[in-house]
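Duplicate of #3305? Posting structure anyway:
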């Protein structure tokens, strides 16, 4: 996809997501910072901040672990080893405290299992989330062509509750 297509399609996907999210009660939001051709998240992040939600973004630590640092402003971001922006704010929230998580994916199977880039960062960081907080809602943002009509998920794979694409949403 060209950068222009990504921006246009991302705007549609973000609007689809925001229409749904406004119906939810949530305070602590985890949202990814996009890389390459991933769906942009700027409109969602801005809307959350305008609604006084606490917004956190992933930060990669040594030993391939993720922390979730508070997003304060664009000025408080650095580029990590994967060329992804992350917050240097010291306010960190444990995974089980999130009530809304918005994550990217490379692919998703017909049961909602997430396929990422292969590092297992989200799978490890969020492995106990549903056990510790069964009210947390995990949303995926992606393109319709990333939905795969096969079953490839493994027990450790993160599962989405909903996925938003340019064509609407899919519930799992």
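Output from current build:
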């Amino acid at each position: 996809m060209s950068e222009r297509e990504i921006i246009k399609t991302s705007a549609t996907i973000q609007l689809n997501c925001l229409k749904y999210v406004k119906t939810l009660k949530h305070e602590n939001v985890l949202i990814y910072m996009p890389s390459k051709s991933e769906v942009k998240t700027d409109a969602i992040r801005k809307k959350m901040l305008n609604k006084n939600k606490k917004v956190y973004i992933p930060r990669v630590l040594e030993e391939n672990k993720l922390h979730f640092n508070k997003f304060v402003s664009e000025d408080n971001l650095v580029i990590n080893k994967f060329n992804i922006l992350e917050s240097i704010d010291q306010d960190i929230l444990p995974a089980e405290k999130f009530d809304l998580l918005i994550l990217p994916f490379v692919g998703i199977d017909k049961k909602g299992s997430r396929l990422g880039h292969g590092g297992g960062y989200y799978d490890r960081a969020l492995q106990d989330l549903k056990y510790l907080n069964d009210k947390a809602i995990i949303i995926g943002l992606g393109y319709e062509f990333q939905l795969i009509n096969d079953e490839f998920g493994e027990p450790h794979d993160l599962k989405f509750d909903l996925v938003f694409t340019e064509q609407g949403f899919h519930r799992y």
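Confirmed duplicate; merging threads. The two ends are 27 Å apart (CA to CA). The chain has one domain: 3-56+94-171.
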